[in-house]
Specification:
The chain is mainly alpha-helical. It contains 18 helices and no strands. It is globular, with a radius of gyration of 21 Å. It starts with 9 loop residues before the first helix and ends in a 15-residue tail after the last helix. Its main location: membrane.
Length: 471
């Protein structure tokens, strides 16, 4: 299908891809969080077992996203996108129908391939959009990562109350079925790709060290960081990563081109992406816990889960709008300046609430500034990567960037929860105000480092179709 052959318009591609990104990954990833206690009860499992409903999809997405991006570069992003969407729907249906925890986890793991929508979308955008519009489109896609979490909390209460927790798992399916049909109709075929061989050894080793490392990271707080299983997983991850680096440095067509990762526009964007992921999830943990802390503590608000979710909604909307605006700013001042501005705003939002959190309006103000900053930062790092690599490697490079952002998000989740837990007078007790202050301050410090990276990033990255920075 050539571009426009079915009457599709260029303007419809990015909104469709953004919708697919929300349904296939952002919403489907976050939608189980409000329902974890009910999943535990409904399937007769433990809190740790229910938490694997989130962990299984996180691990699958982390492993699959770079590989899917590479496959999109090799075989064309439209073809791979349609397969990914179909597999994602199958996994979601299996999870929604599951009557036991292993089946639910299997379905969630299969559905995790939906994370590959993002690198495929960046490749499609670069193929079909003119250079002067690429930044705006990439900005919109990047901002979608923060929207799913807010939507999940807003819809969770009414759906659970009226229909039950299983219907939460059907929501992404209801969106993806028409989305799959629309993608087949609207998304154009891409230019022919080179028929390279798949680096299967690299893919297996990559998956192995990632699963070991991320499992240790996500289970460390529950098992204990000195637990032999955690230490063993970390050791295995290090050894397997060494083997993977050796393989990738020797094969002709590696899964991840290590030379590409050394480009200044790529490594600075990847590092900033990890820090931005930390900052996003730090707020996702700290704000709800603070709102729901008992008023008797002297600093909490005694709010409900719904009130905590509504606090996040304006910031998520602001993040989306900022992602759209980032494209216009990118054309005027460049991705480096946009990253600097986004990091500074996120830093300001966290620093403000670290000192001022006595009233809800202060949390709203700080959260709103944080949301705008993250929207700009997310768009900037994606545009830096897209602009720094050849078009034929867009999927692989943005897939790695998305993976690194996921690692940063995991770090933000675990570190912020640890700050709060450590502030309690006794294990499992009520946390103190100091734990929240430390969590907010740590997120501010992380974005200070992101500001430093913005100064190191290329001043003006080339756009699609222009020469990229040499190795």
């Amino acid at each position: 299908m050539a571009w426009g052959e079915r009457g599709s318009g260029e303007r419809s591609v990015v909104p469709l891809l953004a919708f697919l990104g929300v349904m296939a990954y952002a919403l489907s990833m976050a939608v189980v969080t409000p329902a974890l206690p009910l999943i535990q009860e409904g399937l007769g499992t433990t809190p740790g077992g229910a938490a694997w409903a989130l962990t299984a999809m996180t691990l699958s997405a982390a492993v699959g996203t770079p590989l899917i991006g590479r496959l999109g570069d090799m075989f064309g992003p439209r073809r791979v996108l349609l397969v990914v969407l179909a597999v994602t729907v199958v996994g979601m249906v299996v999870a929604a129908l599951a009557t036991s925890l292993p089946v639910l986890l299997a379905g969630r793991a299969v559905a995790g391939v939906g994370g590959g929508v993002f690198p495929l979308a960046y490749t499609i955008i670069r193929d079909v959009y003119p250079p002067h519009r690429t930044a705006s489109a990439v900005g919109l896609m990047s901002s979608m990562l923060g929207l799913g979490g807010a939507l999940s909390w807003v819809i969770a209460g009414p759906i659970i109350d009226w229909f039950g927790w299983r219907w939460l798992l059907w929501v992404p399916v209801a969106g993806l079925l028409p989305g799959l049909a629309a993608a087949w109709w609207i998304v154009p075929r891409s230019p022919r790709r080179s028929a390279e061989r798949i680096d299967w050894w690299g893919a297996v080793l990559f998956a192995a060290w990632l699963v070991c490392g991320l499992t240790a990271l996500t289970q460390g707080p529950a098992w204990g960081w000195a637990d032999p299983a955690v230490l063993g997983l970390l050791g295995a991850a290090a050894a397997l990563a060494g083997c993977w680096l050796l393989v990738e440095s020797r094969v002709a067509a590696p899964l991840v081109d290590l030379r590409l990762m050394r480009r200044r526009g790529v490594w600075t964007a990847n590092a900033a992406s990890m820090l931005s992921g930390y900052a996003l999830m730090a707020g996702g943990i700290l704000f709800p816990l603070l709102v729901q802390a008992p008023e008797s503590t002297g600093f909490g608000f005694g709010g409900t889960a719904t009130q905590a979710a509504l606090l996040q909604l304006p910031a998520s909307v602001a993040m989306t709008v900022a992602g759209l605006t980032a494209g216009m700013l990118d054309r005027r001042i460049g991705s480096r300046a946009v990253l600097l501005a986004g990091s500074a705003l996120t830093l300001t939002g966290y620093a403000y609430v670290a000192f001022a959190h006595d009233a809800m309006w202060q949390l709203h103000a700080g959260g709103l500034v944080r949301g705008i900053g993250l929207g700009l930062a997310y768009a900037a790092v994606a545009n830096l990567v897209v602009a720094a690599v050849p078009a034929a490697q867009t999927g692989a490079a943005t897939g790695v960037n998305t993976l690194i952002r996921t690692v940063g998000a995991s770090l933000g989740t675990q570190a912020s929860a640890a700050f709060v837990a450590a502030s309690a007078a006794a294990p499992g007790g009520t946390p103190s105000e100091g734990g929240f202050v430390m969590g907010f301050a740590a997120a501010a410090a992380v974005m200070t480092a992101a500001m430093a990276l913005a100064f190191v990033a290329p001043r003006r990255a080339g756009r699609a179709g222009t020469p990229v920075e040499p190795l």
